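note to self — DONT lose this again. spent like an hour looking for the file last time. sequence + predicted structure for the chain T wanted, 197 res
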Amino acid sequence: MKAVFTAIFILCFAITSAQNFDAGLLGGFSTSQVTGDNLSGFNKLGSRFGAYISYPINKKMNYQLEMQYLEKGSKKPFTENSPETYLFELNYIELPTTLNYQVKKGISIESGIGTAFLVDYKEQDEIADINTDKPNTFAIDFLLGVQYQFKKNLKLNIRYANSISRIRKHASEEELGLNSGQFSSLVTFAFMYQISR
């Protein structure tokens, strides 16, 4: 958690006294799934909000650090043909770091790593809570996305993330090659509002 408090300090300092940095707020939503849980589809909706700082490397590239609250997981919704439901919700404080490259005016691509700390979670079916193995408290994600600036201080960020580290082992604890447990994948959509510089 030391990294979280360090990031909070850096972000607060940058937002209040930024000169060479761009700093701002972000907010949006996520849609996610968990591989290895025998379900499919990005059915779990969640929120994504936080703050960011961005430091220019040159005219085309910048380094970006974020601190955000991010909800992800897995969900099986109710249907008439399949009334059983399932919800696995994971809530994280995440510290994404990305390298952004401007491909043309107003459009940038990004790639990086997100380190996340589990805040809480819940797992339940249509009857009650499910007591299974607790997810790992630390997660690492690979990030790939695009930013579109459509106003001077406002951007739209679309990002795909896939976990490098597993959420937890399979219930059977089997490990078959790359299939060593449960992993998350998600797509997020967020507006980024620049408030300094």
